[in-house]
Design brief:
The chain is α+β, with helices and mostly antiparallel strands. 25% of the residues lie in helices and 31% in strands.
Amino acid sequence: MNYVWKINGLESESGKDGKPEVVKRAHWGCYVKDGDISAEIFSICDLKEPDETNFIDYENLTELQVLNWVWESGVDKDSVEQSLYDQILNKKSPPIINSAPPWLS
């Protein structure tokens, strides 16, 4: 399956006293489609404080760089993709559950 990761928004702290603007939080999403069935997850991630040695100015950020920060800050890429995969499987073939007949309730 082809998982599509997106950054939908950024929250940053504006530069003060000559300091650069720093991204503090990223709004992310992941989407997958299998035929006519799709699944998606959206969330927000607080990002780790930037390292001064590899700091990137706000205007030079790329979506891939911010996604890497999201994953480095605790969003488990494999778990998110597994969850989406499970959602697709459950939509294709809903799990069977044991239920008491209504006349026994």
